[in-house]
Amino acid sequence: MECFPEAFCTTEMNAKYQLNTPENKAFLDEICNTLLHFGHKFPSPGGTAYYLGDDGTPCFDRNRETYINCRMAHVYSIGSFLGHEGSEALIDEALKGLNGELHDKEHDGWYVGVTPDGTGLEGKLCYAHAFVILAATSAILAGRPGAQELLDHALEVYDRFYWNEEEGLSCDTWNNAFTVLDDYRGLNANMHTVESFLAVADVAKKEEYRVRCGRIIDHVIGWAANNNWRIPEHYTKDWTADLDCNIEKPDDPFKPYGATPGHGLEWGRLITQWALSAHKADPAKAAPYIEAAENLYNRAVADAWNADGAPGVCYTTDWEGKPVVHDRMHWTLAEAINTAAVLYNVTKKEKYAADYAEFMQYLDEKVLDHVNGSWFHQLDRENNVIGTVWPGKPDIYHALQAVLIPYNAPDVSIALAVKEAAEA
Asked: Which of 102, 105, 311, 379 has the fewest CB atoms nearer than 10 Å to its CB?
C-alpha cells in the first residue's frame, strides 16, 4: 500500500511518526532494510538458527531453538518479496534446519530446540509447532523447494497431537515421544496457532483452519470479557484459569504471572484480521469482534503504557491492572504499533493514530539501536537496556512485522499481504 489516505497529522509531532504519511512510510522502510541486514548471520552449518547477540553475531554457546528458526524462515520469505538480496538462500538454510537437526526422526514432530552440540531438547511444544506451520506457509509463497511438503507434514503432526476438535482449542506440551501430555494449557500457543492457521487459510485455501481460529477467538473473548478485558493466560487441563501461575517467577519469558498487556494488544490485531477475513460478505458480523479487539487494546494501553511515569509497555500487571514486571520487552511495543495502526485503518478513530505516533516516537528515541541495528529486546522501567529475560537480539520477527503491518491489508496474513502489494 503506497497511498496515504486520510493522513493523521498534528503540528506538534514529527511527521515521520504520523501514520499514513510518506515520512512515516520512509522511516519504516529504512528500519525494515536495517532489520533484514541485521539477521543475516543466523544460520548454523546445519541450518538451525543461532541466537543473535547485540550486534547480530551468533551466540554459539546458546541452544538453537525451533521457533527462532521458523521466524527467520518467515521474515526472509517476506524479505524475498521486498527484493532483499540473499533472502532465498537464508530461507533455504532455515528450512534445512527444520527438516534436519530440529526434526525428531524417531518420534516425529519438532524439538523445542537443540543444544550447542546438536542434542534435541526435551519437550514438544505447541508453540514451536505453530511456528513451523507459519514458516512453511511463508516459504510456499516464496516458492522455496520442499515448503509444501513441510506444511503438509506440520499440519498432520499438529492435527494429530495438538488440536482438540471437541474443545476448539490446542493443548500445549508433550514429552518427546508424544506419550505424556502435560496438564498445562495456555493461550500463548493458541495465539500463535491463530496466526499460523490464518496463514494456512490464506495461502493453502484451507478454510477449515479459519473456522478453527474463530473457535479459539470466541473462547478468548469470553474469558477476557469476564475478567475486565485482562486475558487469563494459564489454565489447567480442563481449561480452568490458573490466575496464580508463576506468581513466584513473574518475569518468566513464556509463562509470566498475571496479565500480559502485550498479548492483549496482539490478540486485538489477530481478532481484527480474523473478523475481517471471515466476515467479508457481512461486516455486521465482524463488528462485535472489532469492538472486542478495541476493548483488549484499550485495556492493555490503559494498564501498561506509561503506567509508571515513563514511556513503554510494562511486561505484566496483576489482575487489577497494577504493573508487576515493569520491564519493557521490544515485542510489546511492536504489537502496540501493529494494533494501533490496524484499528485506526479499520475504524478511523483518531485516538489510535495518536497512540501510534507516540509509539513511533518511543521506538525512535528508546528502542531502536541506531548503532548496531535491530531493536533493543529488553529495557528496564527507566528505559535502560538490560538482558535479564531477553539478552541480545535473538530474531527480527516482531520488529519486522511492526514496520510492515501498518501499511498492508489488515485482513490478510502479513506474508501474503506484502507479496500481493509488491506484485500490484
From this structure: 105
Largest CA distance in the chain: 62
Helix (H, G, I), strand (E, B) or coil at 17: helix
* pTM > 0.85: yes or no: yes
Other residues' Cβ atoms within 10 Å of the Cβ of residue 253:
11
Q: Which residues contact 79 (CB under 8 A, 6 or more apart)?
A: 36, 87, 90
Q: How far apart are CA 78 and CA 25, in angstroms?
A: 17
Q: Look at the alpha carbons of 366, 370, 376, 380 in this order and tell me if their dihedral is positive or negative.
A: negative
The neighbour count for residue 366, using CB atoms within 10 Å, is 18
> Among 47, 42, 68, which Cα is nearest to 118's?
47
How is residue 273 written as a grid cell? Answer: 484480521
Give me the average pLDDT of each 10-residue run along the chain (424 residues): 36 82 98 98 98 98 98 98 98 98 98 98 98 99 98 98 98 98 98 99 98 98 98 98 96 91 98 98 97 99 96 98 97 98 98 98 98 97 94 96 98 98 96
Q: What does 156-203 look like in DSSP terms, one character per residue?
A: HHHHHHTEETTTTEE--EE-TTS--B-S-EEHHHHHHHHHHHHHHHHH
Residue 45's SS3 state is coil
Q: 238 is written with which cell numbers? A: 480442563
**Helical axes 187-204 vs 261-278, angle rounded to 10°:** 30
- Non-local CB neighbours of 309 within 8 Å, separated by 6+ positions: none
Look up cell 521506538; give the residue.
363
> 378-379 and 169-170 as β-strands: parallel, antiparallel, unpaired?
unpaired
Contact at 8 Å (CB) between 250 and 258? Answer: yes
